[in-house]
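Researcher: We're teaching a course module on how sequence relates to structure. For the next exercise, students receive a sequence and then see the predicted structure as tokens, so they can try to spot secondary structure elements on their own. Here is the exercise chain.
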Amino acid sequence: MTDTTTVLPLYFRTATELRDAMRSGDLTAVEVMTAFLDRIDATDDAVNVMVYRLPREAALALATEADRARAAGEELGPLHGMPIAIKDLVDVAGMPTSRGSRAFAGRGPMPEDAPHVAKLRAAGALIIGKTNSPEFGVGTVTFNDVFGVTRNPFDTTRHAGGSTGGVAAVAAGMLPFCDGSDSGGSLRYPASFCNAVGLRTTPGLVPAVAGGGSWSPHSVNGPVARTCRDAALLLSGMTGAEAFSPLSSGLGASKELGAVRTAPLRLAWSVDLGDLPISPDVRSSFAQTRDALETGGVEVVDIDVDFAGADRAWEVIELIGWFSLLGRDPLENPEKYRDDFARNVAEASEFSTSELIEAEARRYELFTRFVELLTEFDAFVCPGAPVVAPPADWKWVPRIEDETFDRYFLWQRLACRLTVTEHPVLAMPAGFSDGGLPIGIQVVGRYGADVELLAIGEQLELILGAADVHPDLG
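Model: And here is the predicted structure for the students to work with:
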């Protein structure tokens, strides 16, 4: 591992520093782009996260144009000249979208950008490729039959997490930041495994793709970065209303972080969300995190939250979403799909109306419970994942302590239960196992207060110091 007490290479400098250096003229966009392209060349064979890349000449041409615009005094967006890659569930004009599925592999370039991708372009970001995802984003580890396994930069024998495999690219220094999506921990588990920041945003803050699913608050898009300040910077280029994304109606763009927050913090604290199994190394790290925060002047209060019905509510809503996305094709042509994905769709096709009504009722109940809780606390904190990054040949974690799991999503419940609250959830670096693997925390903030949550995260980040540690990939 590398820490920032030594001189950092350009690819490990913060995105905010790079953006500011380009604006001041201390760096050019071509220099920044070259550093990241070289880093991808040097490390992606080991990590396997970039599933599509612009040719180097095309990427450098984007950077050259960004430098020309700055030199000409043109108005610059908040992300001007910054390279980024997009999760392979999301359409980018001129690039293929495989969704990690044999059913979609080989499709030609997409005709237009997804809404938040268009906003990133308008903000000045330079899109240079696509990042890996499990099939349709199913599961919290990234592997598929099209591109293979994305590995953890801190230990390439282990998973990077998923479904936002792009977290591995950010942690490894291949990208300054990237986008991701989250319905059951797809931003949060990989951030916890890779010592990165991932934000499950308030529904609607980042506009969803047009379609029936755009009415649902269940799956959201959000930023991935190495620091909370960088996540806020990226978020500022992803947000705002979109005519065909109904939950975004009336929502303005988010803002970058201002001065570092110094107000006293009062945190609600939960080791296991009531009853979930947590591995000993995560429990130990979580206790050390608490000690560090209390030593740093943070008030920490143990609380119990009733999550009864949350697991079933998440399962019903999640599986119906997959059925809504693809209809009966996985039922009629299961050979084209991953077995557990086809099983999801088959089960969803049999759900009753009463099961959906009950799931929606439990979701609203959990939402209101957290609204009330966060009138008394600045944030709610629990572990980022129940284990450290699992071995790269596992399809999911089959056992934690004395509890075994026969479905991929059962070990995700530490994230899924928070999804049902519909509040923004920040995953961020907190510490390391004795073996040097990252261990994160989840921090739940007030509904609609995503930038405030990132400011709280930065305050915690400065106390904990874990974000300063980077993997050593040579």
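Model: If you want an answer key for the exercise: The radius of gyration is 21 Å. The chain has one domain: 2-470.
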